[in-house]
């Protein structure tokens, strides 16, 4: 195992990811592919740990992450058409960007722009995995959407929500005790937000 892979595996073990996957620490480590040249971020696939279970492992200033109460169907948000996501428990994403320059864009604008640059938009599990390793990437007024995850409708088309990761203000159903906590929420797919960019990576890889 490469040094980068070992360090990120240790971080996930420390946070408790193996237990959520029903694995021993050693069995979890055995699933980790070597990091790609130049490094990256190790992604915990939803096939190993669902995004809703992974979210509470995010920690910002001592506050654990959470999923908003009106997103009980997070597991139904899957990779959009055209996104090739490895069918493995763990994989890597490389050269991540928060997409701050796209703040106040709509997802409909951001997706083609990301693809035109030869990059891939992040799924919600990839976004969470990034913040597990680098929680400081989430900053107030500089957060991001994960537009590679959408929920298909039974009769065709897509649900109008897009998952996003930001910092709770502790208002409404979030609860005051969650102020400052990292949060998995959603935005309407055609809306713009000055404080949300669009996270992307150069590639997904098995190392």
**Count of alpha/pi helices:** 6
Main-sheet strand order equals 4-11-10-8-12
Percent helix: 10-25%
Major pleated sheet: 5 strands, mixed
- CA-to-CA gap between the ends? 11 Å
Which segments are poorly predicted (pLDDT under 50) over 5 or more consecutive residues? none
Write down the overall mean pLDDT.
96
Q: What is the string of helix and strand elements?
A: HHHEHEEEEEHEHEEEEEEE
Give me the count of strands.
14
Describe the structure.
- This protein starts with a helix and ends with a strand.
- It is globular, with a radius of gyration of 16 Å.
- Helix content is 23%, strand content 22%.
- It has one domain (3-205).
- By secondary structure, it is α+β, with helices and mostly antiparallel strands.
- It has a 5-stranded mixed β-sheet, with helices on both faces. It has a 3-stranded antiparallel β-sheet with strand order 1-6-14. It has a two-stranded antiparallel sheet with strand order 2-3.
- The chain has helices at residues 3-15, 17-20, 25-30, 51-54, 107-116, 124-133, and strands at residues 41-44, 59-60, 63-64, 66-67, 78-79, 90-94, 120-121, 143-145, 149-150, 161-167, 182-188, 196-198, 200-201, 203-205.
